[in-house]
Amino acid sequence: MLYFVSTPIGNLEDISVRAINVLRDCDVIACEDTRHSKILLDHYNINTKTIAYHKFNEQNSAEGIIKLLKEGKNVALISDAGMPVISDPGNILAKKLIENDIAFTVVPGANAGLSALILSGFDATKFAFFGFLSEKNKELKQELEEISAFNGTKIIYSSKYNLNKDLQSLYKTLGEVNVAIVSEITKMHEHVEFVTLPAEISEPKGEFVLVIEDKPKEIITPNDDTILKELKTLLKTQSKNEAFKSMQNKYNLTKSYIYNLYEKNKAKL
Fold this sequence. Notes:
Elements: E1 2-5, H1 17-25, E2 28-31, H2 34-43, E3 49-52, H3 58-70, E4 75-78, H4 91-99, E5 104-107, H5 112-120, E6 127-132, H6 137-149, E7 153-159, H7 163-174, E8 178-183, E9 191-196, E10 207-212, H8 224-234, H9 240-251, H10 255-265
Parallel strand pairs: 1-4, 1-5, 2-3, 2-4, 6-7
Antiparallel strand pairs: 7-10, 8-9, 8-10
């Protein structure tokens, strides 16, 4: 059996009895960083053999773990903190286990994103997790478009190196929205700072969870002449389907409405 085991995100006591037993009883623990995990394992007197499993060796290590499982070994996979797979290594392994019809399960526990959502006090009935923003401009642009399109509370991870850059990117995309900047979750200096973008944090340290409050979009439906004018402009650079979709999203119109309007007036376009 392969166990994806959640580990504490700060306070070492935030681990379940089941997780401790699994880590003690399994044959091998695959760690994102064996040196980091040693702190937790030593704290609970867990002496199980450890191996490295991180983003730089994930492909090859996944094959090695599958070999161990086929030999009848029980393996636990942990990340440095929180739930494996979620913005941490493990996704490739999960896919390969399914492809090889090998059983695996989850030992749930701490998660920074959900903890930060609760600490923010923002609406938790509808939310989406977007992980870390890309540092590549093309990918970042697409991610920001997806974030902007989602109607609900948004959860994003950020590091001290990218925090202010991420806040600036979010402001350019979302405008003046409320953000809870959460850090040191479950630790002695756990902190939640509420800001309205634009904002800048001086000397950020550690890692952060940004929880962005949903800001309902005010949609004003224009008349048909305005829609046709915008559609004509879009069709110069976009395909017909892309232009229709842009107008749908912008004005909350149905595809059939835009299509019929286009068909009646395509001679002008």
